[in-house]
């Protein structure tokens, strides 16, 4: 894997699989844009990468705030003249931060806001930079855990569960990916998504009280396959389960549902 001269942004890259992906991309020569919420962890990762001869800078942003997402996008557009790979990795698990229904700073159901809306807005704001850096790639780190979106209650004000919220947000990521792939066809920017590995040994999994079944290294292998693998060059609109092409839940292939989600997302993020 040779990433010399490539600039890569990974959200949620100060912990878990995002951190391991950042370390491996930096070792391959990429210039890393590290994102996280914790300054100490971000500084430690950047120092670790630089001590090994790599290039990295960090930006802090709480993705539960759409205003902070906008500020992050503005800073990257200001500070960089290219972006070769965007990996939307940051997220909240089924029980992270509490078991009851929570809302973001903007008043939206928290998992839908952080796992999906933040990446939707960040990607939309960074599309001009990605298009100027072709060939470029967008990778959305989703999950095999998916549940159809009920458009009459997207914010889950009735019958809430963390699992349902998480699975809905992850399917929304996949629907967004497929939409992007169609929109960006022949632009030189590809968009793919994946379930990296099942119950990796991460903070998110441990918070859910689940015994890990996979390693962070396995998840990193799968993400790097889409982000930097030569075999995926030019391929777009794909959903992978680990290292294998797979098929997402049925709603992801429903053009009407995707259109409804797109319209809703544009309204919620102020892109209309």
Any overview of this molecule?
The structure is a single chain. This protein has 272 residues and is of the alpha/beta class. It has eight helices and eight strands; from the N terminus they run βαβαβαβαβαβααββα. An eight-stranded mixed β-sheet has the order 3-2-1-4-5-6-7-8, with helices on both faces. The radius of gyration is 17 Å and the shape is globular. The termini are far apart. The relative contact order is 0.14.
Give short descriptive properties of this protein:
eight-stranded mixed sheet, globular, 42% helix, 272 residues, alpha/beta
Instruction: Count the beta strands.
Output: 8
Largest sheet: 8 strands, mixed
Measured by DSSP, the beta-strand proportion falls in 5-15%
Shape designation: globular
Secondary-structure element series:
EHEHEHEHEHEHHEEH
How are the strands ordered across the major sheet?
3-2-1-4-5-6-7-8
Helix content: 40-55%
- CA radius of gyration is 17 Å
Helix and strand composition category: alpha/beta
| Helix count from the secondary structure assignment | 8
Please state the average pLDDT score.
Answer: 94
Q: Which regions contain 5 or more consecutive residues with pLDDT less than 50?
A: none
- Give the N-terminus to C-terminus distance in angstroms: 39 Å
Write the layout of secondary structure elements.
Layout: E1 7-10, H1 16-27, E2 31-36, H2 39-51, E3 55-60, H3 66-79, E4 85-88, H4 110-131, E5 136-141, H5 162-183, E6 189-195, H6 203-207, H7 216-228, E7 239-241, E8 244-245, H8 255-268
Parallel strand pairs: 1-2, 1-4, 2-3, 4-5, 5-6, 6-7
Antiparallel strand pairs: 7-8
Helix pairs in contact: 1-7, 3-4, 4-5, 5-8
């Amino acid at each position: 894997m040779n990433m010399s001269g490539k600039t890569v942004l990974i959200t949620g890259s100060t912990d878990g699989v995002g951190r391991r992906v950042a370390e491996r991309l930096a070792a391959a020569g990429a210039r890393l844009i590290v994102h996280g919420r914790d300054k100490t962890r971000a500084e430690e990762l950047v120092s670790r990468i630089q001590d090994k001869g790599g290039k990295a800078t960090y930006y802090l942003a709480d993705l539960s705030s759409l205003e902070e997402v906008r500020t992050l996008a503005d800073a990257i557009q200001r500070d960089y003249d290219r972006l070769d790979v965007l990996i939307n990795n940051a997220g909240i698990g089924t029980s992270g931060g509490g078991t009851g229904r929570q809302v973001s700073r903007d008043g939206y159901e928290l998992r839908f806001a952080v796992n999906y809306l933040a990446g939707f807005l960040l990607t939309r704001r960074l599309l001009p930079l990605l298009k100027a850096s072709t060939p470029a790639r967008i990778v959305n780190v989703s999950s095999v855990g998916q549940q159809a979106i009920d458009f009459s209650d997207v914010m889950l004000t009735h019958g809430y569960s963390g699992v349902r919220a998480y699975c809905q947000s992850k399917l929304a990521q996949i629907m967004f990916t497929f939409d992007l792939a169609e929109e960006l066809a022949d632009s030189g920017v590809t968009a793919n998504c994946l379930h990296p590995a099942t119950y990796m040994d991460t903070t998110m999994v441990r918070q859910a009280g689940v015994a890990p079944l996979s390693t962070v290294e396995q998840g990193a292998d799968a993400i790097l396959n889409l982000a930097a693998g030569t075999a995926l060059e030019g391929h777009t609109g794909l959903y992978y389960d680990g290292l294998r092409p797979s098929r997402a839940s049925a709603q992801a292939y429903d053009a009407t549902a995707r259109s409804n989600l797109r319209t809703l997302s544009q309204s919620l993020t102020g892109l209309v």
